[in-house]
Amino acid sequence: MPQSRSLFVAALALPLAALAFAEPVPETRWWRGNLHTHTLWSDGNDFPEMVVDWYRSRPAYHFLALTEHNVLADHDKWVENDLVVRRGGRSALREYRERFGDDWVETREPEGGKLEVRLRTLPELRDRFEEAGRFLLIDAEEITDSYSGLPIHINATNVGKLVRPEGGTSVRDVIQRNLESVKAQAEELGRPILAHVNHPNFGWAVTAEDLAHAPAERFFEVYNGHPGVRQLGDDVHASIERAWDIANALRIQELGAAPLFGLATDDSHNYHNESASIPGRGWVVVRAPELSASSLIEAMEAGEFYASSGVELRDVRFEDGELVVEVEPVEDETYRIDFVGTREDVDLSGEAVVGEDGKPVHATRRYPAAVGATLRSEVGPSARYRLVGDELYVRAIVTSSASPDRPVWEGQRKQAWTQPVGWRARVR
Length: 428
Ligand SMILES: [Zn+2]
Ligand SMILES: [Zn+2]
Known about the structure:
By secondary structure, the chain is α+β, with helices and mostly antiparallel strands. The chain has 2 domains: 3-75 and 121-426, Alpha-Beta Barrel (TIM Barrel); 76-120, no CATH class. The chain is built from 10 helices and 20 strands. The protein has helices spanning 6-13, 16-21, 48-56, 81-88, 92-100, 122-129, 171-189, 208-212, 240-255, 293-301, and strands at residues 3-4, 28-34, 63-66, 77-80, 107-108, 116-119, 136-147, 150-157, 194-197, 219-224, 261-265, 283-288, 305-308, 313-319, 322-327, 335-343, 373-379, 382-386, 391-400, 415-418. The radius of gyration is 22 Å and the shape is globular. It starts with a strand and ends in a 10-residue tail after the last strand. The protein binds zinc ion (2 copies). One zinc ion (ZN) is lined by residues 142, 153, 198-199.
């Protein structure tokens, strides 16, 4: 991937006398990774080494977080082969042996019991797969909580110990409490931990207003490759794309809070199939000086990343009031770049969605089309948008003419999502 030298070059352009006193600006580059993955440690259908190997063997990937439901891969754990067969089929253990060898695969058969296989821990996976500056595994977890039957899942990346689900009195209270608990651990252990709200439309659990009203929230999944997470919404429920704009407009205009940044992830569970929740569908690309958890998280907190389901960017930058997007073009693909934003005169009162029984439904309220309006659309591998000044924020979506190799829905196109800009003067 192309290196970003702009900061570095700017530093070199300073007079020598100034340079002597200036802090050196570290050179940055793009790192790609997936922050949402499951293995047999929770409800995935393959051994952790097989999953890590899938990502590690693809040169485009630099980092990966295994995010199991309420468990860390930090202790001794054996699974019955019956479970492996139920999840991954009869060939799963054989394929694992073929790839890693009999010396590596540990099995046991307790007297009168059934064949069991030991799951390798994260420290063991690190020893085997990590390589400085090339591939990083990050300690992580999917905090798996709920409110009144609605699933509320939050990924915590770079945890030092297990975060237990907190529960709460409403959807947004559950989100807020879990985020506070992540923050408390980060402070206690003195390490950055990135928390992001997963798949808001899974189980129609999290509305745009819920996303807006959890003050500790900073990140969410604008794209999750699992086919069951209702990315596009339906007649009653807003799409994730629209929920992002509504939540961000509410946060900036009504609450004086920073907008949410959007991630794309795989949420992969299935490694023996060509459909279901397979790997390789969604990722983030982070511009950071080095490949370490703290460096990546610091960059993401600064908005120095984009989300992708297939489009690679050469650059995205916000300078002198202008958002500039440059695609790394692929032969035979064309690109449309949409600049999307919401202006300050928008009416954010919204209207409740009412069911057939006349009662309000737990769904994102309806807002005018001016929320998340397309401010400009250009065809080509690069485009720029100069902010007029009345925008609460502006972001860009790049859509390719090509489909992903293994699309989630019919007609899906490869996309990239950049983070909202132009909002900093409006938030507290
Ligand atoms: Zn989940
Ligand atoms: Zn998940």
